[in-house]
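In line with agreed milestones, the collection of sequences with tokenised folds has grown. A representative record is reproduced below.
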Amino acid sequence: MNKFILHNHDLLREDSFSLKINNRSFLYSDGFFESIKVINSRCFNLETHFNRITKTAELFKMKISFSFSELQSLLDNLIVKNKIVGGSVRMVFYRDSEGKYFPEENKMCFVAETETSLNGFNINKNGLNLGIFTDIRKDKSKYSNCKTTNAVISVLASIYAKENNWDDCLLLNTENNIIESSNSNLFIVKGDRIITPPIADGCVDGTMRSFIKNQFDVEEESISKEDLFSVDDVFLTNAIKGVRWVESFNEKKYQSHKVARLVFDIINS
């Protein structure tokens, strides 16, 4: 099926759209992206996504050209046009400008596409088996909190996980703290405490992470590799898959995932 995509304010047939070879996201990774869950033909948690878009655009010195209500209307139209009930929207934002490293202007453009998938969230039947990726470490900077179009560390970590028969890999920052997985935020449970790494440690400022922090009493603490061998429960979260519980990390087996299931129940409600 020839789907529709959204280019700024215009709905276009997918096969009629192409990016120029001098697109700055392609040349310099001068851009960022958002992945948004669609449930019952509406974007889930869109206001949190919009706040992150606005924050990232300001950090990247790009001029945003739409309000929350305008974005919501545009995405609603795209979802209806493609007949999406359950699925996702992926948006890529880039600086639309001539120039080399120095851009001649800071106008921001975007492309949005849809994908059909589950209408809602499902918790995983089998627990995830995690390893750790050490070849590249993320900086402790505000740019590490953004979902930039330079995602090479996530790509290589995903390949490494596949090579080792793991479901995912955990990532380290420059101080050897564990901050997230290749595609998700990390939560651990010690007794009755739910803990996640602080944004200052370099993890992505996830929208599902923010949603869970608003629903539960979550503490922010740096997490070491050793911590993962002494906790009761580990789970991962992201905007598309919701919550996934972890069965093992290296040789460590987790006996419980009741908190992960509780979080899942709150999200699904």
